[in-house]
Design a protein that fits this description.
Length: about 300
């Protein structure tokens, strides 16, 4: 069973992609964490982001998809996910992946042009050292001892050196750059929508704000995110409504109104379509799980 609040079983529906906004960890210029699907029984749907992302598997297995290309990662394997590269992850069994996300601006001086850099990983001699640096960086970061931040930064710059000397492509097909540039534009738009989802957003209004025609913006969503503007906005609103319902005793109407839905009925229809149950049913399910945890 897939974790309900993270992904859904969408039988017969098209899989969509969404833009993920990433914020570095406090005190360091990048983000590092254990993959949220480490316990297994998890799927992360298609998404993209500007930072470069490394998935380093220290235990267990998972399946990494980039576009329609699949790679099964085992202990000692890692995946480099480039800026704006659409990907998804299947994690059916427990695993131990360390994830590192690096803001694009940290690669200044190594861009091919217009803040564009591309990495490719073919198994080679540098892989073992690369994984050792990642494991040590995570170990030191978790210890949080006096001076550990400086040691993490020292390891991070060794890690960056390996990235740009061993895995950076010296030149890239112009088609890659065009696609990246278009997804970069779409990233700015979806980021705005994520920050203003509760407001009365329309395709025409957002298009005008970013100096596009409604037709052009609609085509951008379809071509690069595989989803309509309306469906993307509704998906963002549903995620926030679901979090509100999970967090407390908020009413269905309140969850609808504070997350951009015109009525409780509108929220219920969208919720049922995406998650397979009504908001009230989900809230009761969460309460039941919390009660069981309290008894254990």
């Amino acid at each position: 069973m897939i974790r309900f609040d993270e992904a859904t079983a969408r039988k017969g529906t098209k899989m969509n992609s969404s833009y993920e906004l990433i914020t570095p960890n406090e005190g360091i210029p990048f983000k590092m964490f254990l993959f949220e699907g480490k316990d297994g029984n998890y799927r992360r749907e298609k998404h993209w982001h500007r930072p470069i992302e490394i998935f380093a598997v220290c235990g267990g297995e998972l399946v990494f998809w980039i576009d329609d290309s699949m790679r099964r990662l085992k202990p000692g394997d890692f995946m480099i996910d480039n800026s704006n590269e659409i990907h998804s992850i299947d994690s059916p069994l427990p695993n131990q992946p360390i994830v590192i996300q690096i803001p694009l601006q940290l690669f200044e001086g190594y861009f091919l042009n217009e803040q564009f850099i591309w990495f490719v990983h073919e198994p080679g001699e540098a892989d073992q050292e690369f994984m050792e640096v990642i494991r040590e960086m995570w170990r030191v970061y978790c210890e949080q001892e006096y001076g550990s931040r400086l040691m993490v930064l020292s390891l991070f710059y060794r890690f960056m050196h390996l990235l740009v000397t061993e895995y950076r492509m010296p030149e890239v097909n112009p088609a890659f750059q065009r696609r990246n540039k278009n997804l970069d534009k779409l990233s700015a738009i979806t980021s705005y929508m994520q920050n203003h989802y509760a407001e009365d957003l329309s395709l025409s209004g957002v298009a005008e704000l970013f100096s596009y025609s409604s037709t052009h913006l609609s085509r951008m969503f379809q071509n690069y995110a595989g989803i309509t503007f309306r469906d993307y906005l509704q998906s963002v609103r549903l995620e926030h409504a679901l979090k509100d319902l999970k967090a407390g005793d908020v009413s269905i109407l309140s969850a609808a109104m504070q997350n951009g839905f015109p009525s409780g009925k509108a929220l219920s229809r969208a919720f049922k379509k995406k998650y397979g149950m009504l908001p009230g049913e989900y809230r009761e399910m969460v309460r039941g799980e919390q009660t069981m945890k309290g008894k254990s």
